[in-house]
Amino acid sequence: MLRERLIAALGSDAVKTEPEDLAVYSFDAYTDGGRPAAVVLPKSTQEVSAIVKIARDCGEPIVARGAGTGLCGGAVPTAGGVIVSLMRMNRILELDLQNRRVRVQPGVMNLDVSRQVAPEGLFYAPDPSSQQISTIGGNIATNAGGPHCLSYGTTVNHVLGLEVVDDAGEVFVTSIDDAGYDLTAALVGSEGTLGLVTSAWLGLLTLPEAVRVWVAAFDEMDAASEAVSAIIAAGIVPTALEMMDAVIVAAVEAAFHAGYPTDAAALLLVESAGFEEDVAASEAAIHAIVEAHGARYWKSARTLAERNALWAGRKGAAGATGRIAPNYYTQDVCVPRSKLPRALRAVEAAARSNQITVGNVFHAGDGNLHPLLMYDKSDARQVAAVVETGNVILQSAIELGGTISGEHGIGWEKREAMTRVYSTADLAAMGRVRDVFDPRRMLNPEKIFPSGARCPEVAPP
């Protein structure tokens, strides 16, 4: 019944029900899930609306999906249902140069937005490491960040309005210019639990006059961490301030030949953008601060090619770990910048006690850690050790005044950990918001909220 109705509405080319097709959509970059009943690939808002209405009539849950690059199980099915793959909705719909904004469908790749508007002297700021292969829809779902969110903010700071299909298949539009509640902000980061985004107005920024990238090398992670805090404390906010340890640098250099020194315990990758004289002043100030904190190496990327090579190494770091182990798990936590030395020591201690190799590459400027735990998933001991290490790191971040996710979202992976940072009353309030949008919990079920979130003490009255 479900399959026949979907084919009648969208055509057989848009509906996948063969076992091999369903298997492809049963996992993301984090984990495997269950098998969906069907996968549907719409091309328009109207088709998304039709899918939702059919699924609702058939009692099937709905999971929206982009490129499948998510790192928390947010786009995997847990209870069968219909996967709505938005990858065919990949067009840039309108470019409003006068107001520096662009309207795109959710399947547009993040980097393609900047590529399309670059000839006009503009760019789209949020830049997750997966920006070449992650979609705008997925970025909106998780409120994605990236290295440059230190200066420019995360996705929510650049989404001006949304077109959304609700749980009944009806279409509504939001705008940050609307009076009353900011529904746009509420939907960004909701991981497909409040509606399916079918287009978005994105704010664009003017390309800066000057961009400089520098590398500083340290003999100790603590010294590099303290330099990060000192830079921000001095009132300097670089566009990006990233850190890598020796494990990551060795893998990256072997893979990409980015130009990093390989004989240091920690590297800072720093970028500043703006007017030429301001960038020059930042370089002088940052150079002085890192030297005062023990930096023994300083390099300035003088050409675009050198700058691109340094960033290619940073953004390819996770993939480079394949030279160390066949699999890796990325933890995603945030701590106050001043607690970075303690947080990194906790990461190292947890990995060492569980005999796991760890590499650190992260957004140091805003304290967003991404320790990469490397292992072989065919070895049950290593799998158990990685899970334990990740849990210890998570709890350590909480105890240091941090939180359980910086930019990857909650999804399936961390929903039970929500009780570590939110009270029952907090979760009940969130549950009431969700029930306004999706009272039957059809949209991306079993995500974000812990498994007890429908019990009387948490569920809305």
Kindly summarize this structure in a few lines.
This protein folds into 5 domains: 2-85, Uridine Diphospho-n-acetylenolpyruvylglucosamine Reductase, domain 2, CATH 3.30.43; 92-206, Uridine Diphospho-n-acetylenolpyruvylglucosamine Reductase, domain 3 (2-Layer Sandwich); 210-318, 2-Layer Sandwich (Alpha-Beta Plaits); 325-399, 2-Layer Sandwich (Alpha-Beta Plaits), CATH 3.30.70; 424-444 and 452-461, no CATH class. The chain is built from 16 helices and 20 strands.
Topology:
Blueprint: H1 2-10, E1 15-16, H2 19-24, E2 38-40, H3 45-57, E3 62-65, E4 82-85, E5 92-96, E6 101-104, H4 110-117, E7 122-123, H5 136-142, H6 149-152, E8 159-165, E9 171-175, H7 183-187, E10 196-203, E11 205-206, E12 210-218, H8 221-233, E13 240-245, H9 246-256, E14 266-274, H10 276-292, E15 297-301, H11 304-315, H12 317-320, E16 327-330, E17 333-334, H13 340-353, E18 357-362, E19 368-369, E20 371-375, H14 380-399, H15 418-421, H16 424-437
Parallel strand pairs: 2-4, 3-4
Antiparallel strand pairs: 1-2, 5-6, 6-10, 7-11, 8-9, 8-10, 12-14, 12-15, 13-14, 13-18, 16-20, 17-19, 18-20
Helix pairs in contact: 1-3, 8-10, 8-13, 9-11, 13-14
